[in-house]
Design goal:
Largest sheet: none
Strand content: under 5%
Order of helices and strands: HHHHHHHHHHHHH
Number of strands: 0
Distance between the termini: 21 Å
Structural class: mainly alpha
């Protein structure tokens, strides 16, 4: 599933009054901006496994802006990370009530639901994400939905959703290669080979793509082509996990 990279923000300085005491010279305190600064700090600490500092900053964000959806969403993610799933669920629901038009809220809730193996509800959440206006991570949500369906054991549904992800972003490497893998596994080898080659033309040769080509050509009985791509894998990506899988014959 897709992971968000959070960048640490700079904590804004709290505004104070000027020496004149005039109400017109008083700088207005922006609660949303202050909450965002605390969210950035909290999530940065969380991604560094500094949970106490993360909790303190996220709680401060909620004190600044308790009705702001991102404070609820961030605290929900914190509770998810520490295994407080009931609390996380309530906070995700709160974020949805605060911002029912935000695709990110549905997407993140879908990830949580899938982790809880609530697959139908997760799929509904992902599909709600992609129909929200001004949501720009449609491919990512389709990809998340596909991986969730795959986890639930629904291969054909997963293929359809990976295909949607690729339709919305032809440069989505993970979705494209996962779709190709499923195509190989279900006998659509020629389609998979064509898909991998198109992807390589667009984004460059990928070690996972080369390993899939080796597998596909072996299934088709094209031993020379398989050997050629195995050699490319060895030469270009000798330290990759894909090459180690090839050497161990685990692909």
């Amino acid at each position: 599933m897709t992971k968000t990279v959070w960048v640490l923000g700079v904590l804004m300085a709290l505004a104070g009054c000027s020496s004149s005491g005039s109400p017109h010279s008083e700088t207005k305190f922006d609660k949303i901006q202050a909450a965002e600064a605390r969210i950035a700090l909290g999530l940065g600490y969380l991604n560094s496994d500094r949970y106490q500092q993360a909790q303190q900053n996220l709680q401060q964000a909620r004190q600044y802006a308790p009705n702001y959806y991102r404070t609820s969403l961030s605290m929900a993610y914190y509770q998810q990370r520490v295994g407080e799933n009931d609390k996380a669920d309530r906070l995700y629901q709160q974020a949805l009530a605060q911002a029912s038009e935000k695709g990110d809220v549905y997407n993140n809730y879908g990830v949580f639901l899938c982790e809880q193996q609530r697959f139908a509800a997760a799929n509904d959440a992902f599909l709600q994400a992609v129909v929200q206006p001004y949501y720009h991570r449609v491919s990512d949500s389709y990809e998340n939905a596909a991986f969730c369906q795959l986890k639930a054991g629904y291969v054909e549904r997963a293929k359809a959703l990976f295909s949607k992800a690729v339709d919305h972003d032809p440069l989505n490497v993970r979705a494209g290669l996962q779709l190709a893998k499923l195509e190989i596994d279900t006998g659509q080898v020629a389609e998979a080979v064509a898909r991998i080659k198109r992807l390589h033309q667009r984004v460059g040769v990928q070690p996972a793509g080369l390993l899939l080509l080796v597998k596909a050509y072996q299934q088709q009985g094209y031993t020379e082509r398989a050997a050629h791509d195995a050699q490319r894998l060895a030469q270009r990506f000798p330290e990759s996990k894909e090459y180690q899988l090839y050497l161990a014959n685990e692909y």
